[in-house]
């Protein structure tokens, strides 16, 4: 439908918490993935530390797949530290969803 506001309520991060040694998605060592699910067709995902520092931004634009994967690396291609992270999903119309997820080593 055209109302993206109610769609944002269904967005999830899986797994949450992300446990590095869990081998979720049958990952190879050093290639960790976290998935954002049920995203709207077009949006941006901004990920922040709990102190508000921007870690990375991801652009999502796919009319068929509502998933986006993140490799748990910052803008400098370094793995992020364990801890609590805040993510903001924003549509082009300015509608936002703000939530959190954890990374555990």
Strand order of the largest sheet: 2-8-7-4-5
Query: Strand-residue fraction?
Result: 35-45%
Poorly predicted parts: none
- Globally, the shape reads globular
How widely separated are the two ends?
Answer: 39 Å
Number of strands: 8
Helix content: under 10%
- Counting helices, strands and paired strands, the structural category is mainly beta
> How are helices and strands ordered from N to C?
HEEEEEEEE
Question: What average pLDDT do the residues reach?
Answer: 86
Radius of gyration: 14 Å
Total helical elements = 1
Describe the largest sheet: 5 strands, mixed
Characterization of this structure:
The chain is mostly beta strands and 105 residues long. The protein has 1 helix and 8 strands, in the order H-E-E-E-E-E-E-E-E. It has one helix spanning 4-8, and strands at residues 12-14, 18-19, 34-37, 42-49, 54-61, 68-70, 83-90, 96-104. The strands form 2 sheets. It has a 5-stranded mixed sheet with strand order 2-8-7-4-5, with no helix packed on it. The chain has a 3-stranded antiparallel sheet with strand order 1-3-6, with no helix packed on it. A hairpin with a 4-residue loop joins strand 4 (42-49) and strand 5. The radius of gyration is 14 Å and the shape is globular.
Please describe the structure with a list of short key phrases separated by commas or semicolons.
mainly beta, three-stranded antiparallel beta sheet, 8 strands, about 5% helix, about 100 residues, five-stranded mixed beta sheet, 1 helix
